[in-house]
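From the thread on structure requests for the teaching lab: each student submitted one protein with a one-line request. Submission from student K.M.:

"Model Radical SAM family uncharacterized protein from Actinoplanes lutulentus, tokens only."
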Amino acid sequence: MSVNSVFPQLEQLLPRVSKPIQYVGGELGAVVKDWDDTVVRWALMYPDAYEVGLPNQGVQILYEVLNEQPDVLAERTYAVWPDLEALMKENGVPQFTVDAHRPVKAFDMFGISFATELGYTNLLSALDLAGIPLLSADRTDDDPVVLAGGHAAFNPEPIADFIDAAVLGDGEEAVLEITGIIREWKAEGSPGGRDELLLRLARTESIYVPRFYDVDYLPDGRIQRVVPNRPDVPFRVSKRTTMDLDAWPYPKKPLVPLAETVHERYAVEIFRGCTRGCRFCQAGMITRPVRERSITTVGQMVKEGLEFSGFNEVGLLSLSSADHSEIGDMCSGLAEQYADTNVSLSLPSTRVDAFNIDLAQELSRNGRRTGLTFAPEGGSERIRKVINKMVTKEDLIRTVVTAYSNGWRQVKLYFMCGLPSETDEDVLEIADMAHEVIRAGREAAGTKDIRCTVSIGGFVPKPHTPFQWAKMDTPEVIDGRLRMLKQAINSDRSLGRAIGFRYHDGEPSLIEGLLSRGDRRVGAVIRRAWEKGGRFDGWSEHFSYSRWVESCAEVLPGFGVDLDWFTTREREEQEVLPWDHLDSGLDKDWLWQDWQDSMSEFEQDDCRWTPCFDCGVCPAMDTEIQIGPTGKKLLPLTPVNNLRVPA
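Reply posted by the TA:
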């Protein structure tokens, strides 16, 4: 039975909201299929505004992978701003997809990709607008299966009551397996209804269905155990790992936004995973092992992606792009191919010790210099040993001198505040480093017209990392150190005026810490904060610390715990953590030992270039490191003038 578009009703509301173009759809790369010609139907959501959600690489890849299947339909939906939300409620317009403006409730699957836990209130808004019961237990066969993915899904316990299932790890093969299960279940006449479908998903041992697991607590509030409540589901659920990225060259047809977005470029993930071993970095830990795309596949993806989209920037993405075994040849080859166009190359945050003169020259070959960001993370040598960021002050100065000498006039340095064992002195060394950068940069560039931006983020302990046991500092401690740092930066006016200072205060970080390491009891806090108006908590203008603190105070005492219990309390080795039944491949004993090593300031090497140190991922997940070099080069494009690039 066909599902009607809600656009006629939506269209009447758009003149009354800001940025209406973001709700219209019809982008280059968008796909609209006939509803009745498909069997399995997905609504994919990035739970943030269109301008943030559309460029998201994960959603774009799954959107394309699914729509390549002839009998599968995938459409996108994003969080709507509060002005449109109010009008939609007032006029009975449900949460809709931007592709064909179909109601989300009509789909088989509602998949949400969480890059950060601060998107949880937006999930509740979307469910509410869609007419889908907030609680999984209240849903019927008429409701879609609500599926969480993304990095935050490695601990979905705080939203366990609101989702039906979660996928850990890579999604390309997972969504196709889920689609196959739904296809077969439907072909059989949907036996057993919703519960049977969820059971079939759980039996894969790589899809977590919270309703099939019970949590028992100890009198002091800690978890006693998490166990299956039926015999035919696994005790532990394993992450998915997509091997051979060359076999998955997506996105082939990138979405080109109609409205301004945070990134407007053709992005290629040149490798997945990272074994540098930064102890705070959840992304690096949960995406192991390292799997590189070959230089030839990257070159072909860039060629086809630019020809399709017309973008004039190529982003070579990964957690540490300069570590690719063929990054030099890749950058020089691409720079050569697009030398006569206005296409520029960019790398995301670049490791200080991996940036060199050759890379600098290739990234600026055509005269366009995209931003350069380096992430020392810690201000002092001591704290960098604690977090296993093996970069010296000399490395940083040498790197920025290379950048300034090659024509860059601004660099950005990213640090964190609130790291385990951090002192005031560790943070104040950031000011010394920034002053040194400006002094060395002015000398290298031969001008005072250079700038450095110091950007500070708050440390948040994350599941499946060595710091998952760490306590957080209070917002008062964090904000006090940030004030001292600002004063120290400006203590020398001649240098301070060349240094920008941006920071996130301690309050949002503490709430993110609550959500990242919370258990099922935190779900009631999320719901209370949402009922009090919580939306877009990742945006400073919408985030309210007092709303979250009040919600915790109203809900958590009933469980015998409080906000501090989840955030500023250090965990013990034997404590059962909320995510222990979810297997990232990392051995918990190894993580604990690395946590102990951090307090001894012991640095761990990268297993790409040294012997295996038994983190557990490769044997547990039956995977292996896949790196080059392949020995191949990028060949010249013929003819390069066919490239459709805007002037």
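TA comment: The domain at 265-368+586-647 is CATH 3.30.750.210 (Transcription Regulator spoIIAA). Residues 345 and 363 are 6 Å apart (CA to CA).
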